[in-house]
Amino acid sequence: MPFQKGIDKVPGSGKKKGSKDQKTLAWERIGEYVTGEGADRYLSILAKLPDKDYKIEFRAIVEYFRPKLTRAQIQTEVSSELTDAILKAFDVIDEESDIFEPDNIRN
After folding, report:
1. Would you state the pLDDT for residue 1?
2. Is 38 contained in some domain?
């Protein structure tokens, strides 16, 4: 029953304490798909890509895994060590390609 001015609330009616509303339940279902079936599908597609395309997509998805704001809050020493390690790894993978030149990076 919708709210009507002047009518007292019936005890025990309404949402129970601690219960989740429909929007929360919907977001939880979306999250389950994204981290379950959606992630599996994404990984299978990613595995089929050529190295050049794989590196582009990998760099794009890393932003969702570790957002820039979170990275900015990491201590500078740890952050610079991690950055150095990542750059070294990409250098090994990408010795002959110009994929990481500024003109080739997708935003």
Report:
1. 60
2. yes
Classify residue 48: in a domain, yes or no.
Answer: yes
What confidence tens digit (pLDDT) does each residue in 62-79 have?
877 766 655 555 555 555
In-domain check, residue 42: yes
Mean pLDDT of the chain: 75
Could you give the CA distance from residue 96 to residue 50 in angstroms, rounded to a whole number?
15
Dist. CA 60–CA 52, nearest whole Å = 13
Domain range spanning residue 53?
22-104
Among 11, 93, 86, 80, which Cα is nearest to 52's?
Answer: 93
- Flag whether pLDDT at 26 surpasses 80: yes
- Classify the phi-psi angles of 50: left when phi > 0, otherwise alpha if psi is within -120 to 50, otherwise beta: beta
Give CB contacts under 8 A, 24+ apart, made by 43-48.
Answer: none
CA 92 – CA 85 distance, rounded (Å): 11
**2 located within any domain:** no
